[in-house]
Fold this sequence. Notes:
Elements: E1 10-15, E2 18-22, H1 29-42, E3 59-64, E4 67-71, E5 74-78, H2 93-105, E6 115-121, E7 127-130, E8 142-148, E9 151-155, E10 165-169, E11 174-177, E12 186-188, E13 203-209
Antiparallel strand pairs: 1-2, 2-11, 3-6, 4-5, 6-13, 7-12, 8-11, 8-13, 9-10, 9-12
The structure holds succinic acid and fe (ii) ion.
Amino acid sequence: xxxxxxxxxxxxxxAEGAVLLRGRALPHDQAxxxxxAGIEAISPFRHMTTPGGYRMSVxxxxxxxxxxxxxxxxxxxxxxxPETRQAWPAMPAVFRTLAGTAAAEAGxxxxxxxxxxxxxxxxxxxxxxxxxxxxxxLSQPVVSVSLGLPAVFQFGGPRRADRPRRVPxxxxxxxxxxxxxxxxxxxxxxxxxxxxPLTGARRFNLTFRKAL
Length: 212
Ligand code: SIN
Ligand code: FE2
C-alpha cells in the first residue's frame, strides 16, 4: 500500500486518463486535516444553492486564488468568498505540493493548481453526477483527495448516459483525471454512516484544479 519499487503509490487505472493512487495522501493526512481546519476558520463551510434553487447537501468551502461557487445565477469561479466578501484563504503548501506530485505520478507533469474546492460530506449526503467544466484550461487535470469516512465514487464517460463505474474511495486515496477523461461525469453515492478515527462521522474531499 505504501508504494512500489520506485516509491510511487499503487496506481490503478479507472479509465483512460483516470488514475487512482491508493493511500497516496496517508503520510500527510493530519497535516491536510489541520489545514482544512485553518481554511474553515476563515471561510466556513456552507451549503450552496444550485442554479435551479436546490440546497446542495454537501457543505463546501475553498482556498486558492479562486474557488468554485454556485448560486441562483449559475456556477463559476470567484476570487472572493461570497459569504465573507474577502479573498479565499491561501492554498496551504501541503495541499499544493501533494496535488502537484500526485498529478505527476499519474502522468500529468507540472500541474500547479490555483483553486481547491473543499467538500464536507455528512452521512446521508451525496454529490450527483456532473462534469468539472468551469475551468478555463481543460488540458490540466483534476486531482481529488479523500479523507475520513469511505465513499463510493462514480466515474463514467463524457456523456451523462455513460454507465459509471463504482470506485470505493478510502481515507488517503487520491484520484487524478485528465486528458481523455477530463470531462468524465462523476459523483459520490450517498455517504454511509460510520466513524473515522481522525474525522468522526465525516468525509472530506479536496479537488484541485487550474481554474483561471
Ligand atoms: C467533486 O466532484 O467535486 C468531489 C468528488 C469527491 O468528493 O470525491
Ligand atoms: Fe467534480
